[in-house]
Write a structure and sequence with these properties.
The chain is of the alpha/beta class and about 260 residues long. It has a single domain (about 10-190, about 220-250), classed as NAD(P)-binding Rossmann-like Domain (Rossmann fold, 3-Layer(aba) Sandwich). It has eight helices and seven strands; from the N terminus they run E-H-E-H-E-H-E-H-E-H-E-H-H-H-E. Strands 3-2-1-4-5-6-7 form a seven-stranded parallel beta sheet, sandwiched between helices. Helix 1 links the parallel strand 1 and strand 2 (about 35-40). The longest helix is centred in the middle third of the chain and has 28 residues, at about 105-130. The structure holds nicotinamide-adenine-dinucleotide (NAD). Nicotinamide-adenine-dinucleotide binds near residues 143 and 193.
Length: about 260
């Protein structure tokens, strides 16, 4: 199969929903063999749909906070598709509005363990496999909230800011190995994560209007707009990019 990712094998975490699902589809459409992973078994149906459309895909149940799970998932990807070239650390959780004066350590850890520990574990376990394949590309999902703060989301912002600098450190460490490492910083995108957060908020409709107004392009993004950025970073078109922050935010952080 031709395409911008022909011959590459990719692992996408959190691929059952939202940005991960759109990314897995886009990568497969560009010719990559894609291992979808998620703690939600619904990802299996998406992998099957990609195969039904003529793509190469498989699914693995995988919680990114489990080190054992990472070792098994990377090994399963190599066994299924022969190598690993691209890792998309996409799995993530939002936090409910948390006041720092009353924030519990358990709530803090619940966010950090998925959004930051999960990315560390992913690089720790996929890195050697990508090096073994002769190099490749790691793409870590940070956020605009890894660049600017927002009241009530301290744990989320800390996790995503951590992802940005973890990315840069890995980029420097792995440049000699031919492994590029970049972060993607989406603005608010129409996914279940955002819909659920707004639904849970008391003043969800009002918040939605305010958040849309904070994006100069006057709307939320759609998952394809992030998937396209990830495909670019996974492809050889971005061969001179490493340690960079690709901001896809409708102008949110330009202000
Ligand atoms: N949607 C946005 O506006 C937005 C903006 C900036 C960054 N992001 C980031 O993009 C990524 C994807 O977000 P989304 O909007 O598609 O969210 P989503 O909730 O629609 O999908 C997230 C997926 O991650 C999976 N997941 C969560 N915890 C997991 C774990 N421990 N192990 C394995 N899988 C797990 C979920 O099951 C789900 O399928 C996240 O890292 C998020 O923080 C999203």
């Amino acid at each position: 199969m031709g395409g911008r990712l022909a011959g590459k094998v990719a692992l996408v975490t959190g691929a059952a929903s939202g940005l991960g699902a759109a990314t897995a589809r886009a990568m497969a459409r560009e010719g990559a063999a894609v291992m979808l992973s998620d703690r939600d078994p619904a990802g299996a149906a998406l992998a099957q749909a990609i195969v039904d459309d003529g793509g190469q895909a498989a699914f693995r149940l995988h919680d990114v906070t489990s080190e054992e799970g990472w070792a098994e998932t990377v090994a399963a990807t190599q066994a299924e598709f022969g190598a690993l070239h691209c890792l998309v650390n996409n799995a993530g959780v939002a936090s409910a509005f948390l006041d720092l004066m009353t924030h519990s350590l358990a709530d803090w850890r619940a966010v950090l363990s998925v959004n930051l520990d999960g990315v560390f574990l992913g690089m720790r376990h996929a890195g050697p496999a990508i090096a073994e394949a002769g190099g490749g590309s790691v793409i870590n999902l940070s956020s605009i909230l890894g660049k600017v703060g927002m009241a009530g989301t301290a744990a989320y912002c800390a996790s995503k800011g951590g992802v940005a600098l973890l990315t840069k450190s890995a980029a420097l460490e792995w440049a000699p190995l031919g492994i590029r490492v970049n972060s993607v910083h989406p603005g608010f995108i129409e996914t279940p994560m955002v819909a659920n957060a707004l639904h849970a908020a008391e003043n969800g409709n009002e918040m939605r209007d305010q958040l849309i107004a904070a994006h100069p392009l006057g709307r939320f993004g759609v998952p394809r707009e992030i998937a396209d950025a990830v495909v670019f970073l996974a492809s050889d078109e971005s061969s001179f990019m490493t340690g960079s922050e690709l901001v896809v935010d409708g102008g949110f952080t330009a202000q």
